[in-house]
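Lab notebook, design round three. We kept the backbone fixed and only want residue identities now. Task for the bench partner: fill in a sequence for the structure below.
Input structure tokens:
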């Protein structure tokens, strides 16, 4: 039964890499949603909304 619990170095490093990637990916997702939620309640604009408004204002300017 103990032989079924053996993890070779290649599988072990892949497993560690997958865990780290999942944790970091989850962190960035939570960070993004937290920023949206925070900006919704505070009324401040995020970087994406500022960029959109800047592009729209540039399009309105005629030379």
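Proposed sequence:
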């Amino acid at each position: 039964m103990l032989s079924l619990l053996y993890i070779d170095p290649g599988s072990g490093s892949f497993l560690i890499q997958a865990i780290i990637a999942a944790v970091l990916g989850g962190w960035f997702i939570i960070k993004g949603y937290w920023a949206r939620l925070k900006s919704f309640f505070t009324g401040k604009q995020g970087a994406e909304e500022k960029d959109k408004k800047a592009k729209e204002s540039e399009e309105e300017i005629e030379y």
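Keep this in mind before ordering anything: Residues 2 and 53 are 62 Å apart (CA to CA).
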